[in-house]
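name: query_chain
kind: protein
chains: 1
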Amino acid sequence: MGEFFTNQYWGIDIWKHQELPIIECDSFNFFRCVEFQNDFYGRTVSELHKGNLRVSRADNRYSNLFPGQRLSYWADSPKTARAEVKKWGASNNLLTFWAYDDGSSFVPTIYPAEKLHIIDGIHFGFRKILKKIENHEDLTREEKVFVDRIGHEKPDCLAYSSETRKDGTCFLFFEPGFKKLSLRKVTLRLGSCKGKNTTRVTCAVTSDFRPVLEGYGYYFSPIAKTKYDDKYTTSDEYILRKQVDEYSHEQITEMMR
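structure:
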């Protein structure tokens, strides 16, 4: 448990902007639940994860914070993620994504390895403005300038309090921040089905997030089984991540000499 967020590892340095509610840090776990649809069968984990970034609905929380953004909603725990998706009437057939900020991995696969820049909507007095934005109330000129100053810092995500689970925290990722995420595990549980079938795909292991790049090439098949798409290792995504993976190993070898 981190100093500010329960889904951050303890003892990690946190840098606070001198004037704005923005912090810079790393070493997080993030969770997202979506209701599983039959047309998800046959799509690789890579494809399913890309589907987590989309143009948001107007009634999604804080979707109007910055204009022209594709967004992705995540949470601090599986329980918070489930509570959030249940708010929209989802069944118990759930796909749960467990992600981490790739820059905190012992072997990063996204270059350059960077920390997250998080708008903290909980601890530094930004909540009043956020509430007005959520309620689509007009901001004062000073408030608009303040929000624009935050936007110009190119934040990766917004942290805010969950309304569906007490003490839960949600994270609204903007596109640049979403691209800093890598997957640790994806779990399918068909809880509304008689057998409550469950299966999972692993994309990283150990506490320091060592990647299993081939994991992104698995896909789910009926009922709650996994198969592998051999073509994934020829995809641009795999080739580029593999290049960074090899570069990271070279850097580790150099440091150990």
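note: The mean pLDDT is 95.
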